[in-house]
Amino acid sequence: MTRAFLFAAAILITAGCSSTGTIHPQKKNIIETAYASGKIMADSEYTVYALNPGTVIKKLVKEGDVVKKGDVLYLINSTAQAAKLDAATLSYQTALQNLSPDSRILRDLKLTMQNAAIKFSNDSLQYTRLKNLWEQNVGTKSALDNALVMYRTSLNDKRSASEKYYSTINDLNIALKNAQSQVATAQNDLNNYIIRAESTGTVYQMLKEKGEAVRANEALALLGKSSDRLIRLSIDQQDIDRVKAGQEVLLKTDATGDKIFQAKIIRLYPTMNEADQTFRADAVFSGSDSQPYIHTSVEANIIIRRKQQVLVIPSKVLLSGDSVKVKQDGHVKTIAIKTGIRTLDEAEVLSGLDEASEVVVPTAK
Q1: Are 183 and 82 in contact (CB under 8 A)?
Q2: Any coiled-coil ranges, and where (predicted)?
């Protein structure tokens, strides 16, 4: 894209013309530039969004305030979510109590398990005693059979009580973990109603006031670094190959009139914006050059290269195919020349002309 600033004339010098419709090439300085447009941003600028709908109940900062990471910007109404957290917390406390030494559930199960163990021990002793007597031909077969049934029943009851006790402990541990997860989820959801700064910097814009409704994913505030500025430039795809990090930039803003600022390219982005066929480049102000405003539009000339004291002619004398008309021995003829840097107003002559050449200025039609 070939464009220039209103201040381009300050860096370009026209070649001298004679009153006879001819000019002589002159040696002078020439600058090759690439045009860019864009806006000034706060460095590390970011927008804070609402994650849930609600109503602003408190606005804790104002534009221009410096905040630290984690500082609260807004409080959003969250009565329902607070109730969910209370319910989840109560469930967690109950689950914790059920696993404590004073747990009524475990105490009853443990007592049942102990009673089953005592009964099994008694039935085991009775069965063993009757079995020994039977082997000595003392007692009855029916008494021994009844003792065996009681022994086996109490053994099963003992095993069942033990399994139920330890299974309940396992179930209660799972319930406790679920309750912990529900508390964490409810707390995280509640935190979404507390709008915080993501990093240290300045508040540039607060978009909501106390009492205003907020939608999910609605922008609430604009923040960024306090003093650092980033110049976000858009460069035409035809010029991007000539632009490199470290190149000097001359720019002016809508907010500061004709004042020219100096900057430097620090970063190029490889992906083209298909909407306007431009590439993004970032620049920063050089030295003490800066300005306090953000989101102001800028126009910029990126200095591609400079040449000192080279042969230059006005662009208007160039014909198609890099040729010019010259006067030689009283005749006008067309000759081919080789050009280098070109601006809107001038062209560098690499060969084909010298300072003595008399170049014809085409008549305006």
Answers
A1: no
A2: 169-196
- Alpha-carbon span 196 to 355, nearest angstrom: 68
In 3-state terms, what secondary structure has residue 316? helix
Q: Tokens 């199960």 correspond to what residue?
A: 109
What mean pLDDT comes out for the span 9-25?
Answer: 55
The Cα-based distances of 200 to 71, 126, 190, 195, 255 in angstroms read: 9, 80, 23, 14, 27
- CATH top class, domain 46-76+193-224: mainly beta
Residue range 245-263: mean pLDDT, rounded? 92
Neighbours of 118 (CB within 10 A): 11
Looking up tokens 């609605």, which residue turns up? 218
Residue 6's pLDDT band (boundaries 50, 70, 90)?
Answer: very low
State pLDDT tens for residues 329-348.
889 999 999 999 988 889 99
DSSP H stretches of helix in the chain: 79-98, 104-135, 141-191
Question: Which residues have a Cβ under 8 Å from the Cβ of 163 and sit 6 or more positions away?
Answer: none
Q: What's the fold here for domain 8-43+228-360?
A: Elongation Factor Tu (Ef-tu); domain 3 (2.40.30)
What whole-number distance in Å separates Cα of residue 251 and Cα of residue 263?
A: 8
Tens of pLDDT, residue by residue over 268-318, are 999 999 999 999 999 999 977 777 789 999 999 999 999 999 999 999 999
Please give the residue that has the higher pLDDT: either 186 or 119: 119
